[in-house]
Amino acid sequence: LADFARHWGLAAEHIAWANDKAPTVRVEKGTKLIVPARILPANPPHSGIVANLAERGLYIFQNGKYTGFFPISIGMSKKASYHTPTGTYQITSRIKNPEWRAPDSDWAKAMDKDRIAADDKKNPLGEYWFGFDHPEGGYGFHENTNPDYTGDSVSHGCMRLNPEHAKKIYDGKLIVPGMSIRIINEAVVVGKGKSGSYEVAVFPDTYAKDEKRLERKFDKRVKEIGLGDLVSASKKASLLKAKSGLPTPLLDRVALNVKGKSWDRGAPAVLREGSVVVPLALARDLGWSIQYDGHTKTAAIVKDGETRRFSAQPKTKALKAYRMQQSLLVPARALLEGWAPYTWDGKTKTLEIGA
């Protein structure tokens, strides 16, 4: 997988996660593989770097524009002192043909050398080095002298780049002294896709094997974007189990037609555990009155003197409603049954509502 991944500017881990394979597996010619897309980091710097350890990759931004993504190896998980540090730092050096100098570390002492010359084939830094100002010193990006392991958790704390990527970054001055670098370890990444819908990518949590911790991270990210009520338990379980790193829509959207015309007013209609939920605003466009109590998060919908109550409160006698950011969504069947004719096409995910 390593050779195939490098062709796409990725690491073997990225292809392996997306295709449920081991990073070291050999694939036969003609095998179809998924090449994963990426979700750009939230709040990117104007000019700087964001490295996500869980994702095994770094993003570079220059003059307000996204410049590129590059796969990296990260520190080994077996010992905390070998973990790549998180935090915000500044690039301090950019060197071609660097000399290796032994850091104050047990693994360096085992090498029984204080220095390794730049032209020595045993120099672990390769041809390019980009250092940053970590208080303990000795941390940075450098060329991976064994690129088949780019993407793995194998270093003593530094981040390693494919040789061609290290050269591209150096020659193109994509990383230069003075740039900021934000190192994060986010196994759950959320962002908006091309359609404007929220997507999530879940990665293995390298430095924490606790599945409950990963679930808490997932719940936190989903809650932050106001979709905590709508992402189904089965959807969450599937994403957390796969850890594919593939950007996946958090919600399955439904095409909503009213009297033969497409209806799209703000919040979308979506599927939740196989049931369609629709925006409360639909009731108003169908000619029904809505009374909403923000304190109790309860909506009363009235048609021809009959009232149906929906509430987003966890414990209520009213029919269930769900929050989507500033909108309230209600189950389509509970809203429409006996009040308006409708048909559901599960194949096309289309809900047709008559007069």
The structural class is alpha+beta
Oligomeric status of the shown chains? single chain
Largest sheet: 8 strands, mixed, barrel
Strand content bin:
25-35%
Number of beta strands: 26
Radius of gyration: 26 Å
Shape: elongated
Helicity, as a percent range = 10-25%
The low-confidence runs, each spanning 5 or more residues with pLDDT under 50, are none
Strand order of the largest sheet: 1-2-3-10-8-7-4-11
N- to C-terminal separation? Answer: 56 Å
Instruction: List the total number of helices.
Output: 8
Mean pLDDT: 92
Annotate the secondary structure layout.
Blueprint: H1 2-7, H2 12-19, E1 48-52, E2 57-62, E3 65-75, E4 87-96, E5 100-101, H3 106-110, E6 115-116, E7 128-132, E8 140-143, E9 153-155, E10 159-161, H4 163-171, E11 180-184, E12 188-192, E13 198-202, H5 211-224, H6 233-242, E14 248-249, E15 252-258, E16 261-262, E17 269-272, E18 275-279, H7 281-285, E19 289-293, E20 298-303, E21 306-311, E22 319-320, E23 322-324, E24 327-331, H8 332-336, E25 342-345, E26 350-353
Parallel strand pairs: 1-11, 3-9, 8-10, 15-26, 21-22
Antiparallel strand pairs: 1-2, 2-3, 3-10, 4-7, 4-11, 5-6, 7-8, 12-13, 13-14, 15-16, 15-17, 17-18, 18-24, 19-20, 20-21, 23-24, 25-26
